[in-house]
Amino acid sequence: MNKEPGEDNVKVAIRCRPLLPESNEKAMAIQFDENNQSIIVGSREFTFDTIFRPEATQIQVYAQSAKHIVDSVLHGYNGTVFAYGQTGTGKTYTSAGILSHSFAHIFGFIAASARDTQFLVRASYYEIYNEEIRDLLNKNSKTLELKESAQSGVYVKDLSCFVINNVNELEKLLEKGNKQRAVASTNVNKDSSRSHTVFTIAIEQIKTAPSEGRGPGNLRVGKLNLVDLAGSERQSKTGTQGDRLKEAAKINLSLTSLSLVIAALTDPKATHIPYRNSKLTRLLSDSLGGNSKTLLIACIGPDKSNIEETISTLRFASTAKHIKNKARINEDAKDTLLRRFQEQILELRKQLEATEAENIENGQPEPEIDVEKKPANPELLEKLKCLEEKIMVGGENLLEKAELQEKLLIESEAELEARKKKEDELKIALEKKQAEMIQIEEFYGTLQEEVVGINKKLKKVFNYLCSAKSELSDIQSEYSKLREDLLDTIRATHKEIKLANLIISQFIPESCFEMIQESAKYNELVGEWQLKCIAYTGNNMHDKPFHHEQKENFVEDDFTAKAYLSYRK
């Protein structure tokens, strides 16, 4: 099947963590075939773009998988890196390594760029906890809302965003956000993430002179999303109870929504993609089947005790690699911070020039060139300096301690290129030998040899049949477990509904309840029921005191008056 222009499949990499010291198992339950980039679990074999053995380092993982995504972002594309897998398989550890090396990569690119290119880098960090969006860079943040516009698509309203000038500032933001992230201890992982997090880096760049066919002032905006998904988990293994159990239900529900979206995207007969089933899939709709270059890193464990979860993760990743995205360069974006800063700088310079011209007309001497000793307008100069500091120019040294990381990345890339070349040569030689063996097997000297050859082929076909039956059984078992998880969620929801109905029947009069029902409206953007005119009730009206003597003028029926007055007390 031919690809359309700009069409590219989601890249999938698998990373296996080492056996844990506290594990009683001494041998891994999975095998690696690095020549074919495949993982073998029992009789099943899964092939991916890249696989990483337990001994793989952070820089190797970045160089072989995430680097090409960051490269694309630096040239104006949207890019997304997902970390997916069972809880306790090293997703957060992998995400941390990718974040650290991407920081060095971004500012290394800026430092190596021509001086006629200006850059502006900004970052945000938020989590989706119990289907609520929280800003991790704002301690006083309340639950944030999802909004949608024709120009910006789906975005988070009132999310804080910081302009960044170097690697250290990015690392401080990441550290600040991680301290506020929701984590808790379970039987599987003592530091289990209880939320999905999204760290976003937007890179705006503009050339100040015509180059390579691009006109003066052409602007490109690349956006990198680094998504650390909360781990899928089974209550029987994690031993979660109370709040942890509710969190697990929400996590599994959003991951199920993600699975349904991926299943729909890879099904040619699907007519609807259920992006709106969860806030996670809605926010990242561009990353799955849209305008983005996407990488999924699936993390697995080698333990025999977790073999079911490992197969489930590998099957999920195997489905995801068939998703097709249509990425395009985000060029000449209108509403960008860099363009607004440039306009403000130009306006401030005009104001300074006007101030100097006015001084000359009034007979005052022309200001000295040394502005620090004798500033013409201190306030304007301070604003101008502040804005210019936020804009970086290509060719400046911005790496500081990240220079070492960039050097290691280059060395690692060269080593990997040499290793890949050698692997390709060995693979070609192996395929040649296999072809020769097949030809030799086809020449049968006697009827008995022919029978032996046919039996071998029958045995291979029988093995394929057994493997297919086993695969079908696993899929049925997985869907059965998925159905059980959904039923558990439905049962928990029914309990909450019964509790709500009990509270309503005991504490809210029937006439008032009917009034509430008439005023309620479902908001699809937020995913919640909302009441009309709620801003004019309760504590919002506290500033206007109500006196008992106003009773007759304020209400018409005695029942509502008593209810209102008892509420005020």
TrEMBL record:
Residues 9-323 form the Kinesin motor domain. Keywords: ATP-binding, Coiled coil, Cytoplasm, Cytoskeleton, Microtubule, Motor protein, Nucleotide-binding. It is found in: Cytoplasm, Cytoskeleton. Residues 399-436 form a coiled coil. Its main location: cytoplasm. The keyword Nucleotide-binding applies. ATP binds at G85, Q86, T87, G88, T89, G90, K91, T92. GO terms for cellular component: microtubule. GO terms for molecular function: ATP binding; microtubule binding; microtubule motor activity. GO terms for biological process: microtubule-based movement; mitotic cell cycle. The keyword Endoplasmic reticulum does not apply. InterPro entries: Kinesin-like_fam, Kinesin_motor_CS, Kinesin_motor_dom, Kinesin_motor_dom_sf, P-loop_NTPase. Belongs to the TRAFAC class myosin-kinesin ATPase superfamily. Kinesin family. This is Kinesin-like protein. It comes from Tetranychus urticae. The lineage of its organism: Eukaryota, Metazoa, Ecdysozoa, Arthropoda, Chelicerata.
